[in-house]
Design a protein that fits this description.
Number of helices of chain A: 9
Oligomer: heterodimer
Number of strands of chain A: 0
Order of helices and strands of chain B: HHHHHH
Strand content of chain A: under 5%
Mean pLDDT of chain B: 85
Low-confidence stretches of chain B: none
Radius of gyration of chain B: 20 Å
Membrane topology (chain A): Multi-pass membrane protein
Largest sheet of chain B: none
Shape of chain A: globular
GO biological process, one term (chain A): cytochrome complex assembly
Main location (chain A): membrane
Shape of chain B: globular
Family (chain A): Belongs to the CcmB/CycW/HelB family.
Helix content of chain A: over 70%
Strand content of chain B: under 5%
Distance between the termini of chain B: 39 Å
Largest interface: A-B, 27 and 25 residues
Subcellular location (chain A): Cell inner membrane
Distance between the termini of chain A: 22 Å
Number of domains of chain A: 1
Number of helices of chain B: 6
Chain lengths: 218, 243
Amino acid sequence: MIAVLIRDVQLALRAGGGFGLGLAFFLIVMALVPFSIGPDSALLSRIAPGVLWLGALLACLLSLDRILALDWEDGSLDLLATAPIPLEGLVSVKALAHWLTTALPLVLVTPVLGVLLSLPAQGYLWLVISLLVGTPALSVIGTFGAALTVGIKRGGLLLSLLVLPLYVPVLIFGADVARRGAEAQPVQVPLLLLGAITCGTVALLPFASAAVLRVNLR
Amino acid sequence: MASIWEYANPRKFLETSDRVLPGLALLAAILLVVGLVWGFFFTPDDYRQGSTVKIIYLHVPSALIAINGWLMMLVASLIWLIRRHHVSALAARAAAPVGATMTVIALLTGAIWGQPMWGTWWAWDPRLTSFLILFLFYLGYIALWAAIEDDDTAADLTSILCLVGSVFALLSRYAVNFWNQGLHQGASLSMDKADNVANVFYVPLLVCMAGFVMLFLALVLLRTQTEIRARRMRALLARERMS
């Protein structure tokens, strides 16, 4: 499993892996926000937590179809499925690799983008924490969506249609933690709920993803 | 009639539903006509809401069907996953567009009702929002069915999507409660509450709800029959091409 993880991370990092794409997308979207709603920094700082969360979520979405589609096309997914590691483990590792290569860099650059959107000073810590807690759920849910649509040609748009409604609870609680953090309110309740969602999805959803993948591979 | 599983046989299902359908459709029509006419023309205006209150006869039943339609799809999906009865998978497929339409009706009538009452077509109220999310789930479900060519694969994948989606729909339902306070009133039809709607409105509303349930059943049966026949036709065509 560790070998698969290393392989996936390496594939994503090397040329053609699209490693920087999500980051660049995130950066561009965040740069476009002031253009669309105006440079008023009071307004920007009020909406910054939510917008940053939304941008991170969309950037995660962008790279979902790479989780499984490439392996599906060149047939290595069949080999991985027949390997002695359980398929549930495989999809978990795939989700972890996606998180490491897509979500983690996003989390790390969010403070910089927070400056661009004049996020209040007390908001940075909770924004980063909420993203750290919430993005694993995004990766795991995304892997489920990728497993659902892996057999469909040009399934990218369908993938977003399927995955975005599933992202709703994570977005609600995650953005709420960030907003409360920025407004210096107590964040405990939404943070715990966000953590609960993450733990639940990480623990349970790989079974659904593996079941779906088995159907697609038969 | 030995057990309900007999209807897993497509032919048995077709025979029985052929016999039931005309009666069911007629019953739905009668109930709807009686309920709606009664509700629209023979109930008094509400003392605060005036005649706008009467849209309740469309709004509440369609919302009821929208939620329970998804529930029915969930049960049918489970039956498909556990016992592999094709009729069950097809019934789930057949129910999805009906449920989606009901969701749209509930949202639209709600908007039309909300405009004079709340002064807005739309508010990000928990109930409204979760209905919108439910609609998105319906869309995704229908799109996934449409995108996959192989029938059994499609049935499997959509069933699992339905299960996972149900969990997330529930999660979203309570998450939006947390996220924003509501404008929408609470449940008006609980079993043991004093502030239920008054009897003058209640009885025609019940008739309308029964009518919508019958309509839903009739539509789902009809659409399931269509799906079965379409699949048979495809099988026949494939067989002819082979020979």
